[in-house]
């Protein structure tokens, strides 16, 4: 009893395990399908399933695992294992094929029976054949035409150029093909060509040229040409601008020295000792030069009493002449803006009950000056016209003193030498 119980338990367990398992699936080789009724693989009749299995007027012959396309005039004999193949009646020679059910036969007839064009290659397939064109071409009827790879998917990074049966890649300017003949990499023109005259900076697909200071790029964008800074403005230099390759410099006229980069400063020859005045002469510096004047400016009947002052002591000889003359010198620049106050005259002695008047006695024939009375004891010489130089003006300024209580009048003369420089600086 114990043995029977163990057996029944084992059978029951086997049944339960079968119910828990998934359905079993079967796979057949190509050309066969599984028959669930017979539980075996059976041949697929491709001739019945495929409407147009064979081309070119060929007849479809099914066999195990495949089918054949044979001429309609071919005589076919099918025998079973062990049976002799009956011989046909004498007829004109035609291809004869014996198919054995235990073998899969593929008859190589396509090399004589295919319709491939001369530029096409015939490839035998199971039960048929196919015509293929060379690489880079595609079929168009019975002919092979070029396949435009550029119109299809290609691997060119920039541009694709189609050719007969092939294609190649091109890169944009500033790039070159990589070793894979598809990608494009930047060309460092600065290392390869050194195209720039001064400085080259590589860019992706291009390059940039820059010039040294004082130069600018020419129209060809690689050459450098000098910048004429002097043509920018007349204010680049106070006197004269001298252009040079890549730069410029300012120059000053004789009697001046350069101050900084553009201004001209007068050279005081009297202080530097570069004058040629004699011992009895006084050196007077003016803008752009110097002049030598006698240390004793007094002429007869005047005698020198102090520096630059002359007095006439003889009443008979000085009749109608100012009793004293004071000599003064001043320098002004040419083309000075007017009106401009340039010199002040003032009485050295002040007396009570007196009235002073001032006038230009000589040297103002052109009306360049005007004497404006400032107070009872002073007056201002005003420049009324721009003066050109170099030129010297000698102007006599007279002060007339009226003594109100004694009804007495006296005068004194100041002889002012105005030296106008050659330039406006």
From TrEMBL:
Q: Matching InterPro entries, A to Z?
A: cEGF (IPR026823), EGF (IPR000742), EGF-like_Ca-bd_dom (IPR001881), EGF-type_Asp/Asn_hydroxyl_site (IPR000152), EGF_Ca-bd_CS (IPR018097), Fibulin_C (IPR055088), Growth_fac_rcpt_cys_sf (IPR009030), NOTCH1_EGF-like (IPR049883)
An annotated GO cellular component of this protein is: extracellular matrix
User: Which cysteines share a disulfide bond?
Assistant: 150-160, 190-200
Q: Which SMART domains match?
A: EGF, EGF_CA
Instruction: Pinpoint the EGF-like domain residues.
Output: 108-145, 146-185, 186-225, 226-265
Q: Which domain of life is it from?
A: Eukaryota
UniProtKB keywords: Calcium, Disulfide bond, EGF-like domain, Extracellular matrix, Glycoprotein, Repeat, Secreted, Signal
Q: Does the keyword Secreted apply?
A: yes
What is a GO molecular function of this protein? calcium ion binding
Query: Among its keywords, does the record have Disulfide bond?
Result: yes
Signal peptide position in this chain? 1-17
Chief place where the protein resides: secreted
Cellular localisation = Secreted, Extracellular space, Extracellular matrix
Q: Which family does it belong to?
A: Belongs to the fibulin family.
Question: What's the protein name?
Answer: EGF containing fibulin extracellular matrix protein 1
Q: Which organism is it from?
A: Sparus aurata
Q: Which gene encodes it?
A: EFEMP1
